[in-house]
Amino acid sequence: MPVLRIPTPLRAYTSGQSEVTVSGANISEALTDLTNQFPTIKPHIFNDGGELRPFVNLFVGEHNIKDLQGVDTPIKDGDKVMLIPSIAGG
């Protein structure tokens, strides 16, 4: 199964886990599985309309899903998916 790497600021919502094994054939299904396992993380990833928040970046290997097929990007067993929140400052 794919593994989703969780950044430090979001680990409070995954019981402190830095990696979570998820199921799914694409990013959307993997995120659904993640939010089913850890419901409190959902508002930090998705907006009220159910879309990815703009500051959430997901990478399959070294490739940003925004440059691939978005949440429809296929994943397979053994893939490492990294969740990286954007950092803003001024």
User: What's the number of helices?
Assistant: 2
Distance between the termini: 39 Å
The SS-based structural class is alpha+beta
Order of helices and strands: EEHHEEE
The total strand number stands at: 5
Largest sheet, order of strands side by side?
2-1-5-3-4
Largest sheet: 5 strands, mixed
- Mean pLDDT across the residues is 93
Shape: globular
Q: Which ranges are low-confidence, i.e. pLDDT below 50, for 5 or more consecutive residues?
A: none
Tell me the radius of gyration.
Answer: 12 Å
Helix content: 10-25%
State which percent range the strand residues make up: 15-25%
What does this structure look like?
The protein has about 90 residues and is of the alpha+beta class. About 15% of the residues lie in helices and about 20% in strands. The chain is built from two helices and five strands. It has helices at about 25-35, 40-45, and strands at about 5, 20, 55-60, 65, 80-85. The chain has a five-stranded mixed beta sheet with strand order 2-1-5-3-4, with no helix packed on it. Strand 3 (about 55-60) and strand 4 form a beta hairpin. The model has no long low-confidence stretch (mean pLDDT about 95).
